[in-house]
Design goal:
Layout lengths: L1 H11 L8 H10 L6 E8 L4 E8 L4 E7 L5 H18 L11 H20 L15 E9 L2 E9 L4 E6 L1
Helix pairs in contact: 3-4
Length: 167
């Protein structure tokens, strides 16, 4: 019985070690997978919008710039500076967040990942050229602010906002 068990286990084993998904993904992400150019993406940080701009050759990310003028200089500013080098070195958004700046770090990493995705397809767009269309009418919304409820009436025609009243 023991001999059968050993024989069955040996028959199922593979002489070649399996390649890990992480190694496969990392190799694919850096091996000639970009359209050379400059690409940007933005995410909401702790105190405002954070924008990451990357420059790529056809095989790697060659430069990373991070802007976030509304982030706190001593926390978010320090995080953006550190992450700039970390992201370039790693060629990936898979880097550690900066302690004390988790929200800014996460925003930078998400924006970097989005910019890198654009670089893979050559999509340098920053927004949509489609015109907005609205259903004409007046819409009312209420939210609780510092001094209690605030009601806002917004009036639209079919293409734009025509009036805003804050009650």
């Amino acid at each position: 019985m023991a001999a059968c068990l050993v024989a069955s286990m040996t028959a199922c084993s593979s002489a070649k070690p399996a390649e890990t998904p992480a190694a496969t993904t990392a190799a694919a992400a850096t091996a000639g997978s970009y359209v050379a150019g400059t690409y940007s993406a933005s995410e909401q940080g702790f105190a405002g919008k954070v924008t990451v701009t990357i420059t790529t050759s056809d095989s790697e990310i060659t430069d990373v710039k991070i802007e976030g003028k509304d982030e706190t200089p001593d926390k978010g500013g320090v995080a953006m500076e550190q992450l700039q080098g970390d992201l370039l070195k790693a060629q990936s958004a898979d880097v550690d967040a900066v302690s004390g700046s988790t929200i800014t770090s996460d925003a930078v990493k998400k924006a970097f990942a989005a910019a890198a995705e654009k670089a893979k397809t050559g999509d340098s767009s920053t927004g949509s050229d489609e015109a907005l269309a609205f259903t004409a009418g007046t819409y009312t919304g209420t939210g609780v602010g510092y001094n209690g409820p605030t009601t806002v009436d917004v009036t639209f025609d079919d293409q734009k906002i025509t009036d805003i009243k804050i009650n």
